[in-house]
Automatic annotation (TrEMBL):
PANTHER family: L-2-HYDROXYCARBOXYLATE DEHYDROGENASE (NAD(P)(+)), L-LACTATE DEHYDROGENASE. NAD(+) binds at residues 7-12, 32, 62, 76-77, 92, 115-117, 140. This is L-lactate dehydrogenase. Homotetramer. It comes from Celeribacter neptunius. It catalyses: (S)-lactate + NAD(+) = pyruvate + NADH + H(+). The gene is ldh. Allosterically activated by fructose 1,6-bisphosphate (FBP). It comes from the Bacteria.
Length: 310
C-alpha cells in the first residue's frame, strides 16, 4: 500500500523511518510546507531502506498523495516544555484547516491517521473537516500511553511487556485513565500474577507506575524537547493493522457516539482495527473509580472542543 505522511518533523519522520524499516508500506510520500525538510527526510530514510526493506520513500506535494490508502497527519506546531497538550489546540486547529481538503482532493479514499496533539481533539476536528465516517479518521490516541503502561507493569513483574494486556483509556494527556481493574499478565490478573511471583502490586508500586505513564511525555520533553520514537513506532503498528487487515485490538481515538454519558467525543478505548479502519469498539471492565475518571476525561475533552470556534 502507498501511504502519505503530511508533516516531516520528528514525529512524521520517526513514523516514516519505522514504516520503511518494517516494510509496512510499498511507498511513502512526505509532504511538508518546508519542501527542503520533506526532501531531506525522504532521502535520509531512503538511504536506510536497502538494509531492511524495499519501501520506496519520496517527497512531493499534495498531488503526489494520489493513490494513497492511508495518510498520516503529523503536521502542527510542537509542544513546548511545560505546555499541556490541550494548550496546543488553537494553534494546531488552524494547521488542519489548511491541509485536510488538500489531502482528500488527492486521496479521497484514504484513511486518515491523526498524530498531531492534542490528538483526541485534533481527531474530532479532522473528522468534522473531512466529512469522513469516524471509523476512517483514527487518532493515535493512547497507543503510546498503553505501551508505557505495559512496559512498566512488565518491568515490575519481571515479564515481557508483550505478555501484559492492559490499556490506557480516555484522553491522551493529563486526564487519561489507567485500566488497572482489567489488566492481565498472561491469563492472570496482574494482582494475582504479582502475588505468585512474589512481587506484589502495592499501592506504592501502582502510584509509581501511574506517575511513570502519566508524566513520561513531560520528562522526555524536558530532557530533549519532544517525543518521537515511541509514537513513530506506534503509528507503524497502527498502519500495519490496516495494511494487513489484522483485526487487531488497539487503544485508538475516534469520535464515539456515547462514553460515560458524554455524546460524540473522541477518546481512546480498545478498538478492533483492520483494512476498513475501526470496525468495533470494545468497552473494558472498569471499577467505579475508573468509570468516574473516564467520564471526567470525556467531559473535559467535550468541554474544550465546545469552547473552540472553528
Amino acid at each position: 500500500m502507498q501511504i502519505g505522511i503530511v508533516g516531516a518533523g520528528m514525529v512524521g519522520s520517526a513514523a516514516g523511518y519505522a514504516i520503511a524499516l518494517k516494510g509496512t508500506a510499498s511507498k511513502i510520500t512526505f509532504v511538508d510546507y518546508n519542501a527542503d525538510l520533506a526532501r531531506a527526510q525522504a532521502e535520509d530514510i531512503a538511504h536506510a531502506v536497502p538494509f531492511a526493506s524495499s519501501t520506496v520513500v519520496t517527497a512531493g506535494d499534495y498531488k503526489d498523495l494520489k493513490g494513497a490508502g492511508v495518510v498520516i497527519l503529523a503536521a502542527g506546531v510542537g509542544q513546548k516544555p511545560g505546555e499541556s497538550r490541550l494548550e496546543l489546540l488553537a494553534r494546531n486547529a488552524e494547521v488542519f484547516r489548511q491541509i485536510i481538503d488538500k489531502v482528500l482532493d488527492a486521496a479521497p479514499d484514504a484513511i486518515l491517521l491523526v498524530a498531531t496533539n492534542p490528538v483526541d481533539i485534533m481527531t474530532q476536528i479532522a473528522t468534522r473537516l473531512s466529512g469522513l465516517p469516524p471509523q476512517r479518521v483514527i487518532g493515535s490516541g493512547t497507543i503510546l500511553d498503553t505501551a508505557r503502561f505495559r512496559h512498566l507493569i512488565g518491568e515490575h513483574l519481571g515479564v515481557s511487556a508483550r505478555s501484559i494486556h492492559a490499556y490506557v483509556l480516555g484522553e491522551h494527556g493529563d486526564s487519561e485513565v489507567l485500566g488497572w481493574s482489567s489488566a492481565r499478565a498472561g491469563t492472570l490478573s496482574i494482582k494475582e500474577f504479582g502475588a505468585q511471583m512474589r512481587v506484589p502490586l502495592t499501592a506504592g508500586v501502582k502510584a509509581r507506575i501511574d506517575d511513570g505513564v502519566r508524566n513520561a511525555a513531560y520528562t522526555i520533553i524536558n530532557g530533549k524537547g519532544a517525543t518521537w520514537y515511541g509514537i513513530g513506532a506506534g503509528l507503524e503498528r497502527l498502519l500495519r493493522a490496516i495494511t494487513r487487515d489484522e483485526q487487531t485490538v488497539l487503544s485508538v481515538s475516534i469520535v464515539t457516539p456515547k462514553v460515560e454519558g458524554v455524546n460524540d467525543v473522541a477518546l481512546s478505548i480498545p478498538r478492533i482495527v483492520g483494512a476498513q479502519g475501526v470496525v468495533a469498539d470494545l468497552f473494558p471492565e472498569l471499577d467505579d473509580g475508573e468509570h468516574e475518571a473516564l467520564g471526567a476525561s470525556a467531559r473535559l475533552l467535550k468541554q474544550t472542543l465546545d469552547a473552540l470556534d472553528y
